[in-house]
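Take a protein:
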Amino acid sequence: MTETTIDSDKLPEAVEAFVLRWGDLGGQWGVNRSVAQIQALLFLSDRPLTAEEISEKLGMARSNVSNSLRELLNWKLVMRVPVLGDRRDHYVAETDLWQMASKVAQGRKEREIDPMVGAIRAAMEHADDPKISPAVRARLNSMHDFVNTVEGWYNQMLHVPPSQIMTLIRLGSKVVGLLKFVGGKGGSKTETG
Protein backbone atom coordinates (compact mmCIF):
# COMPACT_ATOMS: atom_id res chain seq x y z
CA MET A 1 0.00 0.00 0.00
CA THR A 2 1.15 3.54 -0.64
CA GLU A 3 0.78 6.30 1.91
CA THR A 4 -2.32 7.67 0.23
CA THR A 5 -4.08 4.31 -0.12
CA ILE A 6 -6.54 3.60 2.64
CA ASP A 7 -7.72 0.08 3.37
CA SER A 8 -11.39 0.57 2.50
CA ASP A 9 -12.35 -2.63 4.37
CA LYS A 10 -11.58 -0.80 7.59
CA LEU A 11 -13.18 2.62 7.01
CA PRO A 12 -16.66 3.63 5.85
CA GLU A 13 -16.62 5.11 2.36
CA ALA A 14 -17.55 8.62 3.52
CA VAL A 15 -14.75 8.62 6.10
CA GLU A 16 -12.23 7.35 3.56
CA ALA A 17 -13.25 10.00 1.03
CA PHE A 18 -12.98 12.77 3.62
CA VAL A 19 -9.60 11.57 4.92
CA LEU A 20 -8.17 11.41 1.40
CA ARG A 21 -9.56 14.82 0.42
CA TRP A 22 -8.41 16.41 3.70
CA GLY A 23 -4.94 15.03 3.01
CA ASP A 24 -4.94 16.66 -0.43
CA LEU A 25 -6.10 19.95 1.05
CA GLY A 26 -3.40 19.74 3.70
CA GLY A 27 -0.80 19.80 0.95
CA GLN A 28 -2.34 22.99 -0.42
CA TRP A 29 -2.18 24.56 3.06
CA GLY A 30 1.47 23.64 3.49
CA VAL A 31 0.76 20.69 5.77
CA ASN A 32 2.17 17.23 5.14
CA ARG A 33 -0.46 14.94 3.59
CA SER A 34 0.04 12.28 6.28
CA VAL A 35 -0.44 14.81 9.06
CA ALA A 36 -3.68 16.04 7.51
CA GLN A 37 -4.98 12.51 6.93
CA ILE A 38 -4.29 11.47 10.52
CA GLN A 39 -5.98 14.59 11.86
CA ALA A 40 -9.02 13.88 9.67
CA LEU A 41 -9.17 10.23 10.72
CA LEU A 42 -9.02 11.13 14.41
CA PHE A 43 -11.56 13.93 13.93
CA LEU A 44 -14.05 11.44 12.50
CA SER A 45 -13.21 8.59 14.89
CA ASP A 46 -15.79 7.86 17.56
CA ARG A 47 -13.11 6.49 19.90
CA PRO A 48 -9.45 7.08 20.71
CA LEU A 49 -7.01 5.31 18.38
CA THR A 50 -3.50 4.00 18.95
CA ALA A 51 -0.66 4.78 16.56
CA GLU A 52 -0.79 1.15 15.44
CA GLU A 53 -4.48 1.43 14.57
CA ILE A 54 -3.89 4.66 12.68
CA SER A 55 -1.03 3.05 10.78
CA GLU A 56 -3.20 0.06 9.88
CA LYS A 57 -6.29 2.07 8.89
CA LEU A 58 -4.36 4.51 6.71
CA GLY A 59 -1.73 2.11 5.36
CA MET A 60 1.10 4.31 6.62
CA ALA A 61 4.45 3.34 8.02
CA ARG A 62 4.44 3.37 11.82
CA SER A 63 7.37 5.85 11.87
CA ASN A 64 5.43 8.23 9.61
CA VAL A 65 2.43 8.01 11.95
CA SER A 66 4.64 8.73 14.99
CA ASN A 67 6.21 11.78 13.35
CA SER A 68 2.84 13.05 12.17
CA LEU A 69 1.28 12.58 15.61
CA ARG A 70 4.15 14.52 17.16
CA GLU A 71 3.45 17.41 14.79
CA LEU A 72 -0.29 17.29 15.54
CA LEU A 73 0.46 17.26 19.27
CA ASN A 74 2.66 20.34 18.82
CA TRP A 75 -0.21 22.10 17.03
CA LYS A 76 -2.51 20.94 19.86
CA LEU A 77 -4.89 19.47 17.29
CA VAL A 78 -4.68 16.01 18.87
CA MET A 79 -4.24 14.90 22.47
CA ARG A 80 -3.04 11.74 24.18
CA VAL A 81 -5.72 10.16 26.32
CA PRO A 82 -5.53 7.21 28.69
CA VAL A 83 -7.65 4.12 28.08
CA LEU A 84 -8.38 1.94 31.08
CA GLY A 85 -6.58 -1.39 30.89
CA ASP A 86 -4.32 -0.38 27.97
CA ARG A 87 -0.81 0.98 28.48
CA ARG A 88 -0.43 2.20 24.88
CA ASP A 89 -0.88 5.83 23.96
CA HIS A 90 -4.27 6.63 22.47
CA TYR A 91 -5.07 9.76 20.51
CA VAL A 92 -8.14 11.90 19.95
CA ALA A 93 -8.57 14.98 17.82
CA GLU A 94 -9.86 18.36 18.84
CA THR A 95 -13.47 18.19 17.66
CA ASP A 96 -14.62 21.70 18.56
CA LEU A 97 -14.34 23.41 15.19
CA TRP A 98 -13.84 26.84 16.71
CA GLN A 99 -11.03 25.58 18.95
CA MET A 100 -9.48 23.78 16.00
CA ALA A 101 -9.52 26.95 13.87
CA SER A 102 -8.16 29.01 16.77
CA LYS A 103 -5.29 26.58 17.35
CA VAL A 104 -4.37 26.57 13.67
CA ALA A 105 -4.54 30.38 13.57
CA GLN A 106 -2.36 30.65 16.67
CA GLY A 107 0.17 28.17 15.30
CA ARG A 108 0.37 29.92 11.94
CA LYS A 109 0.69 33.30 13.63
CA GLU A 110 3.60 32.04 15.74
CA ARG A 111 5.36 30.46 12.76
CA GLU A 112 4.60 32.98 10.01
CA ILE A 113 3.34 36.32 11.30
CA ASP A 114 5.39 36.82 14.48
CA PRO A 115 8.76 36.59 12.65
CA MET A 116 7.50 39.17 10.13
CA VAL A 117 6.40 41.47 12.98
CA GLY A 118 9.84 41.09 14.55
CA ALA A 119 11.59 41.90 11.27
CA ILE A 120 9.49 45.02 10.69
CA ARG A 121 10.01 46.23 14.26
CA ALA A 122 13.75 45.67 13.92
CA ALA A 123 13.78 47.62 10.66
CA MET A 124 11.84 50.45 12.32
CA GLU A 125 14.64 50.85 14.88
CA HIS A 126 16.81 52.12 12.01
CA ALA A 127 14.12 53.92 10.00
CA ASP A 128 15.49 57.35 10.94
CA ASP A 129 18.78 56.59 9.15
CA PRO A 130 19.40 59.52 6.75
CA LYS A 131 20.46 57.02 4.06
CA ILE A 132 16.87 55.78 3.87
CA SER A 133 14.80 57.75 1.38
CA PRO A 134 11.52 59.33 2.48
CA ALA A 135 9.62 56.95 0.19
CA VAL A 136 11.20 53.87 1.78
CA ARG A 137 10.64 55.32 5.26
CA ALA A 138 6.98 55.91 4.41
CA ARG A 139 6.61 52.30 3.22
CA LEU A 140 8.23 50.99 6.40
CA ASN A 141 5.92 53.18 8.51
CA SER A 142 2.91 52.01 6.52
CA MET A 143 3.88 48.35 6.93
CA HIS A 144 4.58 48.87 10.64
CA ASP A 145 1.16 50.50 11.17
CA PHE A 146 -0.58 47.76 9.19
CA VAL A 147 1.13 44.94 11.08
CA ASN A 148 0.45 46.56 14.46
CA THR A 149 -3.21 47.05 13.56
CA VAL A 150 -3.63 43.45 12.41
CA GLU A 151 -1.79 42.11 15.45
CA GLY A 152 -3.94 44.27 17.75
CA TRP A 153 -7.10 43.05 16.03
CA TYR A 154 -5.98 39.44 16.36
CA ASN A 155 -5.28 39.88 20.08
CA GLN A 156 -8.70 41.49 20.57
CA MET A 157 -10.44 38.64 18.75
CA LEU A 158 -8.92 36.12 21.17
CA HIS A 159 -11.21 37.53 23.86
CA VAL A 160 -14.41 37.66 21.82
CA PRO A 161 -16.70 34.69 22.42
CA PRO A 162 -16.93 32.37 19.41
CA SER A 163 -20.70 32.87 19.17
CA GLN A 164 -20.21 36.61 18.66
CA ILE A 165 -17.51 36.06 16.05
CA MET A 166 -19.81 33.63 14.20
CA THR A 167 -22.56 36.26 14.28
CA LEU A 168 -20.14 38.79 12.82
CA ILE A 169 -19.06 36.34 10.11
CA ARG A 170 -22.68 35.55 9.23
CA LEU A 171 -23.39 39.26 8.79
CA GLY A 172 -20.95 39.21 5.88
CA SER A 173 -21.31 42.18 3.55
CA LYS A 174 -23.82 43.83 5.89
CA VAL A 175 -20.81 44.81 8.03
CA VAL A 176 -19.30 46.65 5.06
CA GLY A 177 -22.55 48.58 4.66
CA LEU A 178 -22.50 49.44 8.36
CA LEU A 179 -18.90 50.64 8.10
CA LYS A 180 -19.84 52.89 5.17
CA PHE A 181 -22.73 54.29 7.20
CA VAL A 182 -20.59 54.88 10.29
CA GLY A 183 -17.50 56.12 8.45
CA GLY A 184 -19.18 58.19 5.75
CA LYS A 185 -18.75 57.79 2.00
CA GLY A 186 -14.96 57.78 2.09
CA GLY A 187 -14.66 54.98 4.62
CA SER A 188 -13.03 55.14 8.01
CA LYS A 189 -10.48 57.71 9.09
CA THR A 190 -7.70 55.12 8.93
CA GLU A 191 -8.50 54.36 5.31
CA THR A 192 -8.68 57.97 4.18
CA GLY A 193 -5.94 59.35 6.40
